[in-house]
Amino acid sequence: MATAFSSDGEAALRRELDPAEAAAAAAAPRGDLDGFYEMGRAAAFVRDGGFRKVALQFPDHLLADAAMVAARMEAATGAEMYVLGDTTYGSCCVDEVAAEHAGAEAVLHYGPACLSPCRKLPVLHIFGRQPLDVGRCAEAFQDLYPDRQSRVVVLSDVVYAHAMGELEQELGLEYPNIIFSSVVCGDPPGPAPPGEVRQFGRQFLVEAPRGLQDCAMFYVGAEGLTLTSFMLTWNCCPFSSFDPTTGCSRRETLNVNRALMRRLYLVERARDAQVVGILVGTLGVAGYLAVLQHLRELLRRAGKRSYTLAVGKPNPAKLANFLEVDIFVLVACAQNSLLDSSDFYRPVVTPYELELACNPARTWTGNYFTDFRDLLPGACAHVELPPAIPTVEAVPDISLITGEMRVTHLCDLPDSQLPPSTALACRDQTRALAEISPAASFLESRSWRGLEQQLGQTPISKAVQGRRGIAIAYEDEGREQP
Q1: pLDDT at position 418, please?
Q2: What is the mean pLDDT of the chain?
Q3: Per-residue confidence at 19, pLDDT binned at 50, 70, 90?
Q4: Mean pLDDT of 109-123
Q5: Fewer beta carbons below 10 Å: N end or C end of the chain?
Q6: d(CA 382, CA 201)
Q7: E strand or H helix at 217, and its extent?
Q8: Tens of pLDDT along 322-334?
Q9: What is the pLDDT of residue 4?
Q10: Cα gap 118→186, rounded to integer Å
Q11: Rounded to whole angstroms, how far apart are CA atoms 437 and 307?
């Protein structure tokens, strides 16, 4: 199934709400509105920044409180508050584009967040203080890790970050080697010291001899994209989790190797592809323009055609319009990059998977990266493109999917010698030139291209009476035609 990031909206349109639940939500959206939305901290952020127009971004499940929160914020700060509508991409990302349309000077982002750094506007994240039974969570941790000397890194969904200090007091004395991660909004200044991990908006220090390989991971939160990203990225660590909504704990049985095998299969599909569609899945995460340029250059050097597509939230119906594209690469935040494309006509890969396919200098080491910023120059996972190899010296490769030979080296030809993105052809006998794109050429090769007008070629005839009835049973069906 595709994720909510790529849904076509049909589920939201058809969703039914029980009248009793609707009345209860309208009467009392939150027991403690000021505490849940941290109204004091938000008002201080607006006043201290001197902002006169502020955009409020809510996820769907918190929109019922938007009007009340906006009214209280306007009364407390005197600034104009604008509630953003449907987000351009995922709700976990700050929608700077929509905020700029309203002329906002800052954004208050409510609810779960991927914590990707923004490019332009000041942002304050207010996650919403979801309740956590700290005692029950501590008991679950003790059941999962009876050895008091265990090295365990405690991670949490951002909506439970407010309770991690109390949980640390419960477990810190019994477990001397426990490590609690802290939530960091934005990039910390300066390089990370040895042993410090900075990823996914989390920051923690590991002093084990072999680093994370000596640690287990304990996640506080519900199953979802955040946990999946953690498990794929830190796949050398055993994971367990505690779901506060159900009060249940478990050792995560998700077969990470099986998930990685699926992703590596997509890498092989990317190696076979000749036409690649670069999907723009964010306009607010810092560095997205740099990675777009990096992917275009990578595909150009690999001899593949590329098209940059901005289609909003991708779904199977949208991407099915681009049949000439062999595979898509999605440039999005770390949480939305792992798009389940099993329902799509063409696969969707991440920038890291495309690099594995097209950059011969990058080899599979067991590490996985969902944050595209890790691939940029100066980042922890950047790998320079190797020098170009002449075609005559290139070593052929065999596709594991089609069984055909392919060349996987990088070329360094001028743009004019690469497979062109446009071509010139004679339009008529007057030698007028027409520009033909590869997409148009692909369309010409199809056996069916839609209705053609054929003006002046269709003979004129009188109208005749057609069939009557419905398609399942016309009135004249079963009768012998004269």
Answers
A1: 45
A2: 82
A3: very low
A4: 88
A5: C
A6: 19
A7: strand 216-220
A8: 888 999 999 998 8
A9: 53
A10: 8
A11: 11
DSSP-based three-state secondary structure for 77: helix
Please list the residues that pair with 240 across neighbouring strands.
218, 251
pLDDT in tens, 375-405: 988 888 888 888 876 655 566 677 777 777 7
Calculate Rg over the CA atoms of the chain. Answer: 28
Closest CA to 139 of 117, 170, 107: 170
Cβ(336)–Cβ(90) below 8 Å? yes
CA atoms 237, 240, 242, 243: torsion sign: positive
Ramachandran category for residue 454: left, alpha or beta (phi over 0 → left; psi -120 to 50 → alpha): left
- The residue type found at 346 is R
Give the integer Cα–Cα distance in Å for 426 and 432.
6
User: Whose structure tokens read 């071509």?
Assistant: 423
Residue 28 scores a pLDDT above 50:
no
Q: Which residues pair with 350 in a beta bridge?
A: none
d(CA 26, CA 452): 54
Question: Cα(210)–Cα(195) distance, rounded to whole angstroms?
Answer: 10
Dist. CA 283–CA 331, nearest whole Å? 10
User: Three-state SS for 268?
Assistant: helix
Q: What is the mean pLDDT of residues 280-285?
A: 85
User: From CA 250, how far away is CA 252, in angstroms rounded?
Assistant: 6
For residue 42, which of 74, 89, 16 has the smallest C-alpha distance?
A: 74
**Residue with more model confidence, 458 or 96:** 96
Which residues, 6 or more positions from 213, have their beta carbon under 8 angstroms from its beta carbon? 236, 237
Reference 334, options 296, 383, 370, 367; nearest CA is 370
d(CA 287, CA 351): 13
- Report how far residue 301's alpha carbon sits from residue 279's, in angstroms, rounded to the nearest whole number: 19
Report pLDDT digits (tens) over 345-369: 999 999 999 999 998 888 888 888 8
Residue 209 has pLDDT above 50, yes or no: yes
pTM above 0.85, yes or no: no
249 contacts: CB under 8 Å, gap ≥ 6:
140, 141, 143, 144, 240, 241, 242, 243
227-254 pLDDT tens trace: 888 988 888 899 999 999 999 999 987 5
For tokens 């070629």, name the residue: 457
Contact at 8 Å (CB) between 107 and 94? yes
First to last CA, the chain: 53
Residue 109: what residue type?
H
Helix extents (H) in 28-149 = 33-36, 39-49, 66-77, 96-101, 134-144
